[in-house]
Design a protein that fits this description.
Blueprint (H helix, E strand, L loop, with lengths): L7 H17 L6 H14 L3 E5 L2 H11 L7 E5 L5 H8 L3 E5 L10 H10 L3 E7 L8 H11 L3 E4 L7 E2 L2 E2 L6 E5 L13 E5 L2 H11 L3 E3 L2 E2 L10 H11 L2 H21 L21 E4 L2 H13 L29 H9 E4 L7 H17 L1
Parallel strand pairs: 2-3, 2-4, 4-5, 5-8
Antiparallel strand pairs: 1-9, 6-7, 8-9, 10-11, 12-13
Helix pairs in contact: 1-8, 2-8, 3-4, 3-7, 5-6, 9-12
Length: 370
């Protein structure tokens, strides 16, 4: 699905940068982390960036900063990576699952508006920019603003994504991002960051990042260990220099897939991801096919040595750990259909045209047998 070692020149730069950090003796937070935070703020056009130990912690810290806990509810889509729901449960709050819209598989604004009218205990909304496409920012922010509920953007997959000419992640109270190695901006281990334009909120999250220490050994609140290692920061600084090239390479790969699938006359047999009006960053290239064909095709591709994956096979409301919330099959039909019909293909920068031809050829071989 992804080869992290193709760009030898970039790997050499990372190797040199990491060696310099090793020799510096400054391994956690420090100057490299601060430089990365400044560079991310400049790239994303936000006031504050706070590096974190993971994308998960970049979503957990804002919930903690808002004081969300037992008896509270957080609204979120039932279709996403598990961290979106998991962080809500970790605070003791109740995750309230909502269905997604069918085009980009992001939170359905109408479902959100209806849910906010029903509940009096909602303390936050968490909306996800999924697979590199933005959710309906104008609609979601308007609904949250009208209800007086803070919006946390799960932007783990949205680095480089644009909505109406601006980078995603600047419309809610804050956004949580991941730098897991397979992300478009990926490190060499776990990492993430939080962005916000609210200085007071930034200060609260920064306090939480380091065990709630206002000064050495004086803890004004209970936080966590959400600090980023300097080695991760220095690797990410190298990668960040190429982020626009990475985004464009993925977009070119997506456009090439569209051409190859059209030439193979497969566009009626499968459904390709919809391009957005501004900029899709293509963290994943997720196509949709008939649920009866999806798993056999997955096995066929793997037998051919072609990477493919299902994101995500089980919506949150059907996860065993959330059985106590009473979710059942049929509750959220759009998300359940997406879970049964989605299949992701390789889209990473460095993917060659010949490899994409092989991917489409293998799919055509499978389709023509049916």
């Amino acid at each position: 699905m992804i080869d992290l070692c193709r760009d030898k020149a970039q790997l050499a730069q990372i190797d040199a940068a990491v060696s310099a950090v090793v020799r510096s003796g400054q391994y956690i937070l420090g100057p490299e982390v601060e430089r990365l935070e400044a560079e991310l703020s400049a790239y994303l056009g936000c006031k504050h960036t706070l590096t974190m130990s993971s994308g998960t912690d970049a979503l957990l810290a804002p919930l903690m900063a808002l004081g969300i806990g037992h008896g509270d509810e957080v609204l979120l889509p039932t279709y996403s990576f598990f961290a979106t729901a998991g962080v809500v449960s970790r605070t003791g709050a109740k995750p309230v699952f909502l269905d997604v819209e069918d085009e980009f598989l992001c939170l359905d604004p109408q479902k959100l508006e209806d849910a906010l009218k029903r509940s009096k205990n909602v303390k936050a909304v968490m909306a996800v920019h999924l697979f590199g496409a933005p959710f309906d920012v104008d609609a979601i922010t308007s609904i949250c603003r009208k209800a007086g509920v803070p919006l946390i953007e799960d932007a783990a997959q949205a680095i480089g994504t644009k909505y109406k000419g601006r980078m995603c992640g600047n419309d809610g109270l804050c956004a949580g991002w991941s730098t897991f190695p397979t992300k478009n901006l990926g490190g060499i281990g776990d990492g993430g960051f939080l962005t916000t334009n609210d200085t007071a909120f930034y200060d609260r999250c920064k306090l939480l990042r380091n065990h709630g220490q206002a000064e050495l050994y004086k803890h004004t609140t209970v936080g966590g260990n959400f600090r980023m290692d300097a080695i991760q920061a220095t690797a990410l600084r190298v990668r960040l220099r190429d982020i626009e090239k990475i985004t464009e390479a993925r977009r070119e790969n997506a456009e090439r897939y569209r051409r190859l699938f059209a030439e193979a006359k497969l566009t009626d047999w499968l459904r390709l991801p919809t391009e957005v009006s501004d900029r899709h960053a293509y963290h994943q290239f997720v196509m949709r096919i008939d649920k009866q064909q999806r798993d056999p095709l997955l096995q066929h591709l793997r037998a051919q040595g072609i990477g493919s994956a299902v994101y995500y096979p089980i919506p949150f409301h059907l996860q065993p750990c959330f059985a106590n919330l009473g979710g059942k099959a049929g509750d959220f039909p759009v998300a359940e259909n997406a879970a049964a019909t989605s299949l992701a293909l390789p889209i990473f920068q460095g993917l060659t045209e010949a490899e994409q031809i092989d991917v489409v050829g293998a799919i055509a071989q499978f389709a023509h047998r049916r």
